[in-house]
Each structure stands twice: as C-alpha cells, then as structure tokens.
Amino acid sequence: MRITKIAKAGTLESNDILIMVMPNESGNVELELESIVRQQFGEVIEQVILHKVKEMGIEGITIKAQDKGALDYTIGARVETAIKRAI
Amino acid sequence: MYGVKTEQVNLQDRVEREEVEVFLQNFNLSLDQDVDYTIVIRDEALNQPAIVATCSKARNVLKCFAVIEELQGEGIAATLISTLLDKLFSQGIYHSFIFTKPANAPIFASLNFKLIHSNADVALLENGLDDIYKALERMKANYNIGDEEKASLVMNCNPFTLGHRYLIEEASKTNHEVLVFIVEEDRSVFPFKARYELVLKGVSDLKNVKVVPGGEYLISTATFPAYFLKEEGQWMKAYVELDSSIFGKYFCKRFNITKRYVGDEPYCQLMEAYNQALKTVLPSYGVELHQIRRKAIGNIAISASRVRTLIKEGDFNGLKNLLPEITLEFLNTNLGREIVEKIQTTHAPH
Fold it and tell me: Model ipTM?
C-alpha cells in the first residue's frame, strides 16, 4: 500500500518521538533518524520503525523521525498514527 | 512542568495582543507586525493566570519566543515548538525557520532545528522535511547549473529596468557564466512570476546568463526580514551579515560562485549597508565583490524605486528612458495596468 500525503504524529517532548512521513517516488522505505540516544539505541529504534512499516504493508515512504527517548511501543504507535493520517 | 496547556492568542483583540507585547518587553523583544499566529502558556496556579511563556510565527518563521527564567529548562520550549509545528502541518507547511538570539540556539538545536548561520546578534535555524542542502541540490538540477566558475547577481527587479540589464551585461561580458538569482519572496508590488519572466525574457540574448528563482534562502523573510519591513534599526547590521554569510557559505560553495556583482547604492541606506556587509563577508568565503557604478540618465541613476515613483506620478514618458521594451510592454498588459493602479493608489516602499 502507498501513502498519499504528508503527515506527522508525536511531539518533541521528552520520552516522545516526532514522526513525519511523506510519499516518495522510489517505492522504497527511506528512514532518517535523529535521536538523543542514537549511539545506544539507534539500531533498535530503526528496527522498530521499519518493522511497523512492513507490518502495515507500506511502500514508497520517506520517514523522518526525531526521537526524544521514546519507548518501543510509543515509537510503534506514533509511526502507525502518522501512516494512517497519511493514507 | 507537567501537563502545561498552550492557548492561542486572538491577535485581532487589542487587549490580548497587548498582554503578549508587555510580556515580551521583559525580554527586550516585541511582537512583530507580520506575526500570524501566537500561543501562550499561563501559570494556572495563580488567581489571574499570567503569561509565563510565548512563541509566535509569521508564515513559516517562528519568532518572538520567550519563557520566564524560573521555568527555563523545564521543557516548556518543547511544548511551544510542538504546538507550533502542529499548526504549521495543519497549514501544509512542512519546513520552518526560527529566528532567535544566538544564546537560544542550543535550545532549538536540542529540538532538532539545524543551525544555518549565527553571528553576534542573531541565529537562523531550520527544521522539517526540507533543508538548505536539499534546496540547493534541487536548484542545481532544475536549472542545470554546472560546476564551472561563475559570477552572480541577486536582484529583486521590481520591476526590471535598464539599470538591471546594464549590470547583468557587465557581468556577462567579463565572465564565462553568470547566475542571476531573482528574489522569490512575494512581498513586492510586482509579483515574483512577473519579475522573473521579465528578466528571463529581457536577458535571453545573453547566452551565458542563467536566471534562477532565489528560493527561501536569499533575501527572504527568513534570512532578511528587514528588507521587506524596511526597518533600519539595531537589527539591520545583523540581518545583512546573516544574508551575506548564507550566500557565501552555501550558495557560492555549492555553485562555485567566485564573484558577485552589485550596483552602488546612492539612495537606500539599507541596501548600502547590505553592500558593505557583502564587502566584508564574501572575501572570507573566497568570493570577490564587484561594485559597479549604476547606469545613469543625465545625473540620475536608474533604480526600480525611481521607476515606481515615476509610475506613481504618472510620468510615462520619463519611464521610456529607464525601462527596456519588455517591461514597457508588460505595463500595458492587464496585470501591468493593475499594478500601475496599485502603485498610484497606495503608499508602499516596495
């Protein structure tokens, strides 16, 4: 499935993550992550985001994630909401 | 502070507006005229809840930001900025700037704003789905800009005069390739599209000249708000330094620009200050500034503001000496006549 518009979910507050999604032409899933705990958890956060995208069956999406130390289920919920808003 | 609520200020309401203005005065700030959305946070513990924090925006530029000292470091900025980003998104704006004091830059950097440039007085940061690097890449691709050495000009052309034509010609004669950036911000009496097309057609015979829309980073409300507000106060120096530096640091580097041409400025104090800033800033980025004496008719140098004055006075014969054929033709189109009427009936510096 493809998303059709730009959307976001989340905030920049502590323990949250701001997810912005936009459709792209390439058909791939592109992820740009900024995180205050990137060094410790960067890979895990990326996995959680990509897993959610795959689970929802989305292709052709560019994701910009600005993380402020969110827990995994927060990340999943924000990604899901952003994508649902963008469909 | 946990669970703070932001509240939108009705900018049309004089009392509400004044309350924000008074609050900002404590921080040596004012509520700019072009602000279109303002939020505040109040201390709910008080009987008459006073403002403890505020932030505003003018289209995609966040500004007039202040938090009382007692609450700094409590994450209030994150709440304010998140709320404003929500508003921007709901307006379909996915890229924003923040204009602030250099001391505040780290606060916004921690909220994922990227520093574009800062000097002693101001810092400009950006956030969102776009950034200056992507914007320049797009420009390069869309206008087929190569890697050879170039000269450049940045012009508003409000409207395109024989003076502009002369400057571009001078640059074109002595350089291999010339880039002319046209100020894209639509705040001038001649709309961007018309200004751009007049230049494009007006220099189409000069084969080594490319006319390119200036985008969001050259003399825009983000990089140079004073240009549009015609403010000449304390901030002028900071603004012109900021704009010149962005040009040197990003544009010249990416497009291999080694020279910039400007006309001398006998009339406008602001533009003269801008030229001075270019003169000091550009060499530090390896760019030469060439100041060319303006083309004059008799004793009077040609300028777009002179053209607008003549239009206001209805002196269309006088215009023939100052404008190329293409601009004269434009003034006779429907859109052109509308603009002429607008100039004659309103009083605006631009």
Answer: 0.84
